[in-house]
Known about the structure:
This protein is α+β, with helices and mostly antiparallel strands. It has helices at residues 30-50, 59-67, 72-92, 99-111, 124-138, 148-152, 175-195; strands at 114-117, 142-145, 159-167, 210-215. The model is unreliable at 1-10 (pLDDT under 50). InterPro entries: DUF6891.
Amino acid sequence: MGLFDRLRKRQDPTAPARQVAQEPAVELSPDELAEHESALRGSARVTFATTRMPMVQHDDLATDAAAEGLPLERAREILREEWDRRVQLAQEHRDDDDSGAVRRAFVALNAEGVLAVEALGYDNDEGHELATEEAGDVGAEGYVFFHAQDVERVVDGPGTLHLRYAAARYTATSAADKYAEDEAVGRRVVAALEDEGLAPTWDGSGASTITLERLRWYPVPGDA
């Protein structure tokens, strides 16, 4: 499993812990080690920027890295460094953080029948696929999400967060009418964000994402 595969599925805190990977028999070159360390840091930064679970629940990031050649203890050290970094960022920016407003808007949308999910899937196609499935499971009328690559844009400071949305199931058959159904969901998303004091940007088209410009995303990792 690749390091970013962890981001390609929803986190399940009830899943049993996997067996710790054995240290690899083949030693990596210094350049290869540096590459693996960098990849793990990138994966950890995205994961820890949105996680609601304690750090211990993410040890599979370390064991996955160990399976690919990074020494297990070094992998765990990197995870601890990145976790502590997110905690420090949250403390430093507790008075200028927008994550709480986004999350409250998502809670309101979920209560109103629009599935709203953070860090769903790795990219746009996968996020829509997972959102459609989850919305069907819970009987939601529509959905909104942002994916792992969207998180990368805001993980190190203010950036633009793209919110992706759609109707969960269509009554229309033409493309234009389907976009109209998507736009109805988009208007509900914009309203929920504005109710929390945010200023989303959207041109009103179902073909466009809703964006939050200069978003400050500094939640405390593991804060449910």
